[in-house]
């Protein structure tokens, strides 16, 4: 059974992530969306459970997608879960250097290959960090994220981020 691993912070999941997950799900028997527990970036806006709940809701129509958490090395998680391939979306050339470096490191650590999927052009400018920034200052993110995520962002910035 060909299993793809789609890792990320998903803070929060965007329409760009969803587009990649939907397209990957057409090519693999099973897709594991792996949410990193402790992103190296600044503190998360959403807790792990919130990020997982949003992902589960927006991928609920895809029968071969499951959501998991991981900490530590991605390739260790891949081995434990029987994933043969890591899949990453590439938005622009600016993503490429770092993604290539990670893909080669992961390959040398484990033999697990990374496939890159070109992001659909309408999402090439989209990132979770920009979505957070636009939403923080009251901008309209309804075309950038699924409705459930837009509602959570709205709520989060009304109530203030978690301590
Ligand atoms: O959504 P992000 O923040 O760009 O995702 C980055 C992620 C989680 C894919 C990356 O940081 C990762 O794979 N972290 C796990 C730690 C690891 O395996 N590091 C070595 C990679 S070369």
Task: Tell me the overall shape.
Answer: globular
Strand content: 15-25%
Tell me how many strands there are: 5
Strand order of the largest sheet: 3-2-1-4-5
Give the averaged pLDDT, no decimals.
95
How many domains make up the 3D coordinates?
1
| CATH uppermost class | Alpha Beta
Low-confidence stretches are: none
Based on CA atoms alone, the radius of gyration comes out at 15 Å
Q: Would you kindly provide a written description of the structure presented here, covering whatever features stand out?
A:
With 163 residues, this protein is of the alpha/beta class. The chain is built from six helices and five strands, in the order βαβαβαβαβαα. The chain has helices at residues 15-27, 48-58, 74-80, 93-110, 128-136, 147-159, and strands at 3-8, 30-36, 65-70, 85-90, 113-118. Strand 1, helix 1 (15-27) and strand 2 (30-36) form a beta-alpha-beta unit. The chain is globular. The N and C termini lie far apart (42 Å). Residues 7-9, 36, 39, 73-74, 102, 105-106 line the site of 4'-phosphopantetheine.
Helix and strand arrangement:
Layout: E1 3-8, H1 15-27, E2 30-36, H2 48-58, E3 65-70, H3 74-80, E4 85-90, H4 93-110, E5 113-118, H5 128-136, H6 147-159
Parallel strand pairs: 1-2, 1-4, 2-3, 4-5
The protein binds 4'-phosphopantetheine.
